[in-house]
Amino acid sequence: MKICFIADTKSIHIMNWLKYFVAQNHKVYLITDTENQIEGVTIFNIGDCLPKPRIPLLTASIQISSKIKKIKSLLSKIKPQIIHSHYATNYGYLAAKANFHPLVLTCHGSDILLDLGKDKVKHHFVKFALNNSDLITMPSNQMAQIVKNETNGKKQMSILQYGIDTEQFNFQSHESDLSITFISTRALLPKYRIDLLIQAFAMLKEEYSDVKLLIAGTGFQEASLKKLMEELNMSSSIEFTGDIQNNEIHKLYKNAQFYVTTSPTDGLSISLLEAMSCGCYPILPDNESNIEVEKLGFQIELYRNSEVESLFYKMKRAVEKKDTLTYIVQNNSKLVDENFSRKRNLAKVEKIYHKLSGGY
Hints:
Elements: E1 2-6, H1 12-23, E2 27-32, E3 41-45, H2 57-78, E4 82-86, H3 88-98, E5 103-106, H4 110-113, H5 120-131, E6 135-138, H6 141-150, E7 156-159, E8 180-184, H7 194-205, E9 211-216, H8 222-231, E10 238-242, H9 249-253, E11 258-260, H10 270-277, E12 281-285, H11 288-295, E13 301-303, H12 308-320, H13 326-339, H14 342-356
Parallel strand pairs: 1-2, 1-4, 2-3, 4-5, 5-6, 6-7, 8-9, 8-11, 9-10, 11-12, 12-13
Helix pairs in contact: 2-3, 3-5, 7-12, 10-13
């Protein structure tokens, strides 16, 4: 089957999709605006697909029109059986404007949970992508309900988390004599609210002298977050690891007992699945997606979204019961393997492709 993705090669998740379908002996093409090389994938780079900040509206419109024309031309030459775009706000919009079918759109989280409620332009981009796709996938029921409302229930949808490599991210028992370590692996960007985690951890440190916090990731907030760490005298207890490659990050999870996210909104996050698969006990905000996680049978700690004191309390509670968590984290890991194995879930996507393309 000829499959053409329209997506960002900087995303490790997109890389994993591409590699999977290459391994299944499909002819895989990618239209993107980012530089990368992926063995077995024919890549077409169309340059910047959306404007940088402060570009006048007219210039932006011309630029977007140019990219759409390039995509149309490429699709006419490739003649794929399936087109699959990722992230509704940009690539999804461009793919929809190209008007080739069948078109699968995968929404990842912020495109639905944030961009639909922001400015009119982003809302227009997302809604156009949704209404002009043949099938839409998303990782959570919360997102599915929003998509259903935006499309008046007229679109085929599939709630599908593409999953993780459960052979790499696998369970390891965390011995009680390890130092008490929390880990966060979200990007250092305002929307992930890492500042709340640093504040809550400083409160925890007043009660437990042997706790540590690993903050893995990069982003333009790094300097301001490190300044906050220094102001709270936490420099000896908090480590910023910088950028960690995906094939290395499982080692950090396996040396931590607790995973924390402070992202106010989420789909079903890949980093959460990776952490639970490795045996980290999760401490999560009580947004709708994480409440869904609990309903799936995972045992987790939920704190009041964006509240520092509530996060501190739940982190403290987790430390207090750390010696009783072995069965819980082992069961969480088992549930990830049973429900969110990448191999199994991408095989489901492959069946969707065959159905939409008429069995090619």
